[in-house]
Amino acid sequence: MAKIIVEQVQGGSGGTALTIPTAAASVNNQAVVGSTAGVLSHSPIVLPAAASGANNRPLIGATTGALSFAATAYPAADGTNGQVFQTNGSGVGSFGTMASSPVPDDNDLMIGAIFTTSMRENFYSTGTWSSSGPNSTYYNSLSDASAILQCWNMAFADGKPKASGVSNSTNDITYSNNDDGEARTKLFAHNRRLGWVAKQWERDYNQTSYPGLTISILPIRNKGSAAVDISLKRGFTSINNYNGSGIVSYRPTYSSGTNYANATGGTWTTHNAFQSNTSYAGSNNTQTINIPAGETVLVMMTSTHIYHTTDFMHDIHVYAELQTAFTHADIQCDMRMLEALHSCRQPAADYNVATPYEMYTSCATCYGDR
Q1: Shared-domain flag, residues 84 and 125
Q2: Kind of pairing, strands 182-188 and 112-118?
Q3: How far is 272 from 270, CA to CA, in rounded Å?
Q4: Based on the structure, what is the number of domains in the chain?
Q5: Is the C or the N end of the chain the one with fewer CB within 10 Å?
Q6: Residue 145 sits in the same domain as residue 288
Q7: 3-class secondary structure, 223
Q8: Tens-of-pLDDT digits for all 370 residues of the chain?
């Protein structure tokens, strides 16, 4: 077989002679590179074997010298000043605006809730509200839907959130009528407990039958792909149905998917409506709460302040054995939602309308959707 052996090639008359490689490439798609001496050789850089399959995918290199197209495509146009690069998790990049108030990522070392305390002596009958409560007769045991509605509003320190008055009248009262209380206060677990046992509230107005109350909301997120049942133990004080202790959970409904921004409504589930007298020693029980895959559930709990001695009311309000409740790898406290519970408004809320789903949409706007 005839061969033509070429050691050099020259481009045009008088051009530089280029020495070509004397051996084949060691792998397919090796690039040929030149030197200032006119010697061509096989580069260690290996080009991709096929096209990227999508526009704007950059080349990335491996330590072997092989180049490939990145899985994530860059945006086709520049972002604006201050925007950050982000992906949708499916190989598409875009420029977006970072949340104005970033919060820590969910993790196993942070479990928190918001707490609100009202010192109203008579929180269930006439005297403080224009009727028996912000909307109707209020049961701190959360034994009916109206009580849950009113409790939700009072948890945010205003049982009449659309009231226009600012005078000292029963129609304008927000949530607390006597002595010091606290509203939407964030509290975090030190280890296995969140809340308090044997907290003493000092009250100048000494009543034994018309106590105050404590409300807390704990946001629990399931980051996994399957629903998880958790066992949540709680400790509390209670007197009766009006002055009881309840625990309920809220799951939103969505227009599509399960992103915060798509929440349009939701349903409450009552897990326990305790209506007996625990005395100031308190009581406890454990509830099973279902946390759907990829969703955040809001757990709301109440306790009643029990007369202990002159000027002092006794309160037990605690989530216990958190190492058990949060033992599943996919179950965490939702830190974005906790920040929203602490700070966000619910524009549609009214004395007879509770809008927990708005906490999800507000969270999406203020702290980032997911």
Answers
A1: no
A2: antiparallel
A3: 6
A4: 2
A5: N
A6: yes
A7: coil
A8: 666 666 667 766 767 777 878 888 888 888 787 787 878 888 888 888 787 667 777 778 788 877 777 777 778 788 788 788 777 777 777 877 765 557 888 888 999 999 998 876 444 444 344 345 667 778 889 999 999 998 999 899 888 888 777 665 555 555 554 455 688 999 999 999 999 998 887 665 555 556 788 999 999 999 999 999 999 999 999 988 888 999 999 999 999 999 999 999 999 999 999 999 998 889 999 999 999 999 999 999 999 888 877 777 889 999 999 999 999 999 999 999 999 999 999 999 998 888 999 999 999 999 999 9
* Residue ranges with strand state E in 139-244: 182-188, 194-202, 213-222, 228-236
Contact status, residue 249 vs residue 297, Cβ threshold 8 Å: yes
Range of the domain at 259: 112-367
Query: Are 160 and 351 in contact, with CB atoms under 8 Å apart?
Result: yes
Determine if the pTM surpasses 0.85: no
Cβ atoms of 73 and 57 within 8 Å: the answer is yes
Collapse the DSSP code of 247 into the 3-class scheme (helix H, G, I; strand E, B; otherwise coil) and give the result: strand
In the numeric block, the tokens 């659309």 are attached to 162
Which of the 8 DSSP states describes residue 170?
T
Cα gap 273→115, rounded to integer Å:
19
Q: Strand 331-333 vs strand 59-61: parallel, antiparallel, or unpaired?
A: unpaired
Pair of tokens at residue 169: 């009248």
| Strand ranges (E), 223-368 | 228-236, 245-254, 263-274, 283-291, 296-304, 306-309, 312-320, 331-333
Strand partners, 344: none
Task: Locate 221 and state its tokens.
Answer: 């997120």
| Helices and strands of the chain, counted as H and E runs | 4, 20
